[in-house]
Amino acid sequence: MSYVCELGTGQTLYLENSANQTFVTLSSGSSGQQQQASSGYQTGTWTTPPQVNQTSRGTIVKITTATGEYNILIQGSSMSVSKETLSSEQNEPLPIKPTEKKPVSSMKPMQPMQPLKMGNMEMNLNTMEMKMGDMELKMGSPSVKTPNFCSQCGAKVNSNDRFCANCGHSLT
Ligand SMILES: [Zn+2]
């Protein structure tokens, strides 16, 4: 079961339900400059087709499944899912249509993985995947500190040290 919805912002939204998971793929840009973001959520099987609403907060996708209602908020290229009903002043339903077509890029939406268990360490990759958007944004900011050395004795000093801990030489 797949649906496609054209968002007013030049983005195309693909919604797919398979194996109890909802896959949301957001595709934007013109040909050659395609940008695509995908997320998978454990929602259960849809009981009705999803509803897409353009609101003042962003695009809200409402998914109704056997286990309840999920609201996916899309703001720009970021997505977040919530079990709470997201309400907004302006609510403009967007038409969605069933599709057989997959997102333009051949990249398949990432399959949400089951929690990994290794000994006493447990890692939930689903949460990691949702945080990946933020991580990518932070990757551009350089925060690597190059080690400093005392010009007097060559001992390693911290970049915010005012004096060398080894010889007391003033570093400022
Ligand atoms: Zn020194």
Description:
By secondary structure, the protein is mainly beta. The chain folds into two domains: 2-112 and 124-129, no CATH class; 142-172, no CATH class. It has one helix and 14 strands, in the order E-E-E-E-E-E-E-E-E-E-E-E-H-E-E. The protein has one helix spanning 125-138; strands at residues 2-6, 11-18, 21-28, 35-42, 51-55, 58-65, 68-75, 78-82, 91-94, 96-98, 116-118, 121-123, 148-149, 156-157. It has a five-stranded antiparallel beta sheet. It has a five-stranded antiparallel beta sheet with strand order 8-7-6-5-9, with no helix packed on it. A two-stranded antiparallel ribbon has the order 11-12. Strand 11 and strand 12 form a beta hairpin. The relative contact order is 0.15. Mean pLDDT is 78; it is low at 125-143. Bound molecules: zinc ion. Zinc ion binds next to loops.
